C-alpha cells in the first residue's frame, strides 16, 4: 500500500470518527430538503427576528439530527414540525444531509465591508446573513460564573455546543427562555430519564437571566 493510499484511508477514518461525510456535501439536494424549513427559519437558517423560530444555522449536526428524530417520533411534541417530518417522510439519510448542511452555514456577527462595485442586491443579500443578538439585561459576571460551573461541561466554554448538546451562543434570548420554561415545566425533558435532576433545576431565576445575559456577550467571538 502506497503512502497516498495510507493517507487516504486514515483521512476517511478520521472523517468517520468525527461524524463528517467523506463525500462532498450535495448542496443541491440539501437545499431541496431544506426548502420547506426556510418558510419559518429563513433562507440561511437564522430563524425568526423575535425568536419565535430558533436559529438552526451552525447548529451541531448531531443535535439537529436528534431533534428531527424526536419530532418525527413525537418524543418531542411540536405541531409545526411533526407534519413536515412525517409528510415528507424525512428518512435517516435526509436528516443527516440536512444536519450537515445547516452545520456549515456561517452567520456573521458584524456587518460586512462592502466594495464600491457591490450593487444593491449583493449588499442586501450579505446583510440578510448578519445575525446580531441584542444584549440581554443581567449581571454578566454572575452569569459567566454560573454558566461555567453548570452549563459549560455540556454546551462548551463559549456556548458553541458539543456533540448532542446544542449551540447556545448566537441563539435568540426569547427562544432560549421559552425552552428553559418548557424544561422547568416538564413540557420538554432536559435529561434522558426525564428526572428533574439537571442543572436548570438547581438554578435560581435570577441566575438563569444572568446566564442569558452572559451568552449575548459571547456572540462577537463567533466570527
Question: How does the SSE layout of this entry go?
Answer:
Layout (H helix, E strand, L loop, with lengths): L2 H15 L9 H8 L3 H4 L19 H13 L7 H7 L4 H12 L16 H9 L11 H11 L1 H4 L17 H12 L20 H11 L8
Summarize the structure in words.
This protein has two domains: 20-132, Orthogonal Bundle (Cytochrome Bc1 Complex, Chain D, domain 2), CATH 1.10.760.10; 140-221, Cytochrome Bc1 Complex, Chain D, domain 2. The chain is built from eleven helices and no strands. The protein has helices spanning 3-17, 27-34, 38-41, 61-73, 81-87, 92-103, 120-128, 140-150, 152-155, 173-184, 205-215. The termini are far apart. Mean pLDDT is 85; it is low at 1-22.
Fraction of helical residues: 40-55%
In total, how many beta strands?
0
The CATH topology of the largest domain: Cytochrome Bc1 Complex, Chain D, domain 2
How far from one another are the termini? 41 Å
Strand content: under 5%
Tell me the name of the CATH homologous superfamily of the largest domain. Answer: Cytochrome c-like domain
Number of domains: 2
Count, helices = 11
- Report the structural category: mainly alpha
Second-tier CATH architecture of the largest domain:
Orthogonal Bundle
Largest sheet: none
How big is the Rg?
19 Å
Shape field: globular
Mean pLDDT rating: 85
